[in-house]
Amino acid sequence: MKYFIVTYGCQMNVHESEKIAGILENMGYTLAEKREEADIIFFNTCAIREGAEDRVFGNVGNLKKLKKKNKNLIIAVCGCMTQKSQTAQKLLNTFPFVDIVIGTFNLSRFSYYIEAVKKGRQMEIFDEGDIDETLPYKRTSGDNAWVNIMQGCNNFCTYCIVPYVRGREKSRKHENILKEVEDIVREGKYKKITLLGQNVNSYGKDNENEISFSQLLREICKIEGDFKVSFMTSHPKDLTDDVIDAIAEEDKIEKYIHLPAQSGNNRILKLMNRSYTREKYLDIIKKIREKIPSCRITSDFIVGFPTETEEEFNDTVSLVKEVRYDSIFAFMYSPREGTVASKMEGQIDEDTKRLRVNKLLKVEKGIQKEDKNDN
Ligand code: SAH
Ligand code: SF4
Ligand code: F3S
Predict the structure, then answer these.
(1) Which of 61, 74, 66 is nearest to 118 (CA)?
(2) Is 155 helix (H, G, I), strand (E, B) or coil?
(3) Which end of the chain has a smaller Cβ tally under 10 Å, C or N?
(4) Which residues of the chain are under the pLDDT cut of 50?
(5) Residue 136: predicted pLDDT
(6) How far is the CA of 316 from the centre of ligand 1 (A)?
(7) What is the largest CA-CA distance in the chain?
């Protein structure tokens, strides 16, 4: 029996697909080279922007032909899209040939669901719960090993669907994280360890007995072995001096910070509920550059947030020029149902968003070209 997994979205999803692969291999499945050869196809979905959801609908739709050829093929959809009950329902209604729609927290019981599906039931399963720590991973990212340190997000940036689909912040116990890192290092196959969380800087804050993120980093660096550790993503409001100091002082920590700014304009930052100003953000950048001169810094930006004027967008352009990032991601704002920003008046038209995203990326390209010529 063979499996095939299609993954959308962020690194946390990539890592979750490694867990799905681990579960399936435990059940005796092996990896298929292409989806046509699979007995089970898994879609691990993302809901961050409308485009991500559209791609899933398109690609799941395309499986109808395969299902016609192979009646026993099992099609499962999981991930952030399925955490929204309306979308889960829409998937099942649009595609009656989908067998299982399953939430992020229910993977541990997956073998049971497969048996039920084989008996002819279409299933929709999702409820809240804890991530099962005992599930095996099949690591698939070469010499990089992902390690989840927390799940969920408490920040409720007004544009963002993640807190709704991933629930509240919950940190893993540091003992379990350290044990996982020790095991990875002992295996000897991995040179890089990347800690994952939507907001790693708030690690431990949900449990008063837990250590802080900088302490976790220091503990990981005490593990003997030849490896580098990095992490993502950092929220500027929680990036404290002790974390910057740890990066500066510990040889094992990669000199790299992904520090999404989202906008360079204070009114928009406030509407986004980001809890920092342009000035505070620039202060953090200054501190990083002083303490870690070799540090690579990257960022995410959203253009065309509701009511953003041309002038306010130009503040984002000027921030990018001022910081001179090593690279950036720029996204056109995509309204997500249920979020505060999706209900705001003054939504910006797609053409304007496209012009702004292209302008921002052009500015960034110019900076990178200049920096290359300098070196
Ligand atoms: N937790 C991370 C971001 C996770 S989502 C953080 O806070 O930095 C990755 C990126 O997707 C975000 O940084 C943001 O730039 C973008 N994004 C999130 N919601 C979006 C939306 N509704 N429209 C467009 N881009 C969005
Ligand atoms: Fe979304 Fe904001 Fe949480 Fe990041 S910090 S996942 S952008 S709500
Ligand atoms: Fe997408 Fe979910 Fe990640 S919405 S970006 S896969 S947390």
Answers:
(1) 74
(2) coil
(3) C
(4) none
(5) 77
(6) 15
(7) 65
- 12 alpha carbon to ligand 3 midpoint, in Å? 7
CATH number assigned to the domain covering 257-375: 3.30.750.200
Q: What is the pLDDT of residue 91?
A: 87
The phi and psi torsions of 150 (rounded to 5 degrees) equal: -160, 160
Architecture of domain 141-254: 2-Layer Sandwich (3.30)
Give the residues surrounding ligand 3 with Cβ less than 6 Å away. Answer: 9-10, 12-13, 46-48, 79-80, 161-162, 165-166
Q: How far is the CA of 135 from the centre of ligand 3 (A)?
A: 21
Domain range annotation of the chain: 2-125, 141-254, 257-375
Check residue 116 and give its pLDDT.
Answer: 79
Q: How far is the CA of 13 from the centre of ligand 3 (A)?
A: 7
Q: Is the CB of 163 under 6 A from ligand 2?
A: yes
Choose one of 53, 80, 300 to mutate for the ligand 3 pocket test, by most ligand atoms within 8 angstroms of C-beta. Answer: 80
Q: How far apart are CA 313 and CA 80, in angstroms?
A: 30
Q: What is the SS3 assignment for 173?
A: coil
Nearest-atom index, ligand 3, CA of 198 = 7
Comparing 2-125 with 141-254, is the CATH topology the same? no
pLDDT at position 367: 92
**pLDDT given for residue 111 in this prediction:** 77
Query: 157 CB less than 6 Å from ligand 2?
Result: yes
Please list, in sequence order, all residues whose beta carbon lies within 8 angstroms of the beta carbon of residue 54, skipping any fewer than 6 positions away. Answer: none
Sheet containing strand 192-196, strands side by side:
144-148, 192-196, 228-232
Q: Which atom of ligand 1 lies at the shortest distance from residue 260's CA?
A: 8
* DSSP assignments along 258-308, one per residue: E---B-S-HHHHHHTT----HHHHHHHHHHHHHH-TT-EEEEEEEES-TT-
Ligand 3 centroid, distance to 217 Cα (angstroms): 24
Q: Distances in Å between the alpha carbon of 40 and those of 35, 71, 104, 143?
A: 9, 11, 18, 27
- The reported pLDDT for the residue numbered 243 is 97
Q: What is the pLDDT of residue 371?
A: 84
Determine the Cα–Cα distance for residues 311 and 306; give it in Å rounded to an integer.
14
